[in-house]
Amino acid sequence: MPSYRLHYFPESGNSYKLALMLTLCGERFEPVWTDFGGGVTRTAEWRKAVNEMGEIPVLEVDGVKMTQTAPLLLKLAEQYGRFGAATEDEKFELLRWLFWDNHKLTGYMATYRFMRAFTEKNDPQVLKHFRRRLEDFLGILDGHLQHNEFAIGAKPTVADISMMAYLHYPSDEHGFDFAASHPAIHAWLGRMAALPGWKPAYELLPGKRMTNYAK
């Protein structure tokens, strides 16, 4: 079986996506904590040695460094025969929600949460703009989940793993009370948390935590 090393920091929902996928597939990984808050990923040395794109996570598979979470999730789904799609129509739906998440939900939530919780001084108008966009995206997802148990039907896929990652963090970080505002999302997060082997990010990803200024 392959050996895995995951370069991450605990607050990274994208890191959590890969950590959770590997865990749900029964695999272990060596955690490699990265000082993202200290700026190491912006250094020329780190980018040359680890990831030229300057991003976390990085998944090493038998010593080969691989990046970009979405294609890695798809690769792992195919490799392990889990959390993928069974038909061409399902594959299209999986990609549709995975790409929507990357461009909209994760894209905005990751930035909003980082600015809101982990930036000491932020611009209220910028946060207001991101919040307004997120409320639109969350409304879309909540509406979809009112009629679907998971993203593409009755079974969870990597689209669900991708979409739930940033939403499952503590509410004092992202500032949403999904039980009150988006009950279908809240129920879906509960279904995801009930999957055998599921663990939250701060259990799967150890290491020094960044200061939460939103508390």
UniProtKB/TrEMBL annotation:
Keywords: Transferase. GO terms for molecular function: transferase activity. Transmembrane segments: none annotated. Residues 2-84 form the GST N-terminal domain. InterPro entries: Glutathione-S-Trfase_C-like (IPR010987), Glutathione-S-Trfase_C_sf (IPR036282), Glutathione_S-Trfase (IPR040079), Glutathione_S-Trfase_N (IPR004045), GST_C (IPR004046), Thioredoxin-like_sf (IPR036249). Pfam families: GST_C_3, GST_N_3. PROSITE patterns: GST_CTER (PS50405), GST_NTER (PS50404). Residues 87-214 form the GST C-terminal domain. It comes from the Bacteria. PANTHER family: GLUTATHIONE S-TRANSFERASE-RELATED, HYPOTHETICAL GLUTATHIONE S-TRANSFERASE LIKE PROTEIN. This is Glutathione S-transferase. It comes from Bradyrhizobium shewense.
